[in-house]
Amino acid sequence: LQNAELGKRAPRWIRDNEVTMCMKCKEPFNALTRRRHHCRACGHVVCWKCSDYKAHLEYDGNKLNKVCKDCYHVITGCTDSEEKKKKGILEIESAEVSGNSVICSFLQYMEKSKPWQKAWCVIPKQEAVVLYMYGAPQDVKALATIPLLGYTVDDTPRSADLPHSFKLTQSKSVHSFAADNEELKQKWLKVIHLAVKGETPECQNE
What we know:
It is found in: Cytoplasm, Cytoskeleton. By secondary structure, this protein is of the alpha+beta class. The protein has two domains: 14-74, Herpes Virus-1; 92-195, Pleckstrin-homology domain (PH domain)/Phosphotyrosine-binding domain (PTB) (PH-domain like, Roll), CATH 2.30.29. 17% of the residues lie in helices and 28% in strands. It has four helices and eleven strands, in the order ββββαααβββββββα. The strands form three sheets. It has a seven-stranded antiparallel sheet with strand order 8-7-6-5-11-10-9. A two-stranded antiparallel sheet has the order 1-2. The longest helix is centred in the last third of the chain and has 14 residues, at 182-195.
């Protein structure tokens, strides 16, 4: 259906067995976790996350129907940024951000005098000056975000630090990170050196 017709007439439903993945976020359906839902506006088969929207559809007597994110935006005229505000910055899912990131990997992280802990760190393409930290790659909520702009990078580890570590400092806040090897550390530094100046880095996720 063309955008103008969305919700005005019933769509052709794509059959469940015609797809193996969500037609919006491309998340594969599997027997266990991914229930299939139909968008009542465009007829596409989508996962639960992408069908978590409702809009009034004209062809169904203006009743509220489950629709996919794209149709929701078209029909209601609501934009993504309003959507994101509702979600809150930390609730951007790791998989979503990692899949579209400049760089992502596990790093050891230490704050002040707390012990080192492992964190899944991501710098997303659309916000290449923010470092997101998750407990694990599939987590749906970040533990913390660090806006990198204006931080100073110190990449010489002290004897007490882990070997491939570097620090980010800004006035009183100090964040220490350590990579598993020197190559990974250099990849991160390449991105972070640009991010702290507000420049958009090249993608390192090759």
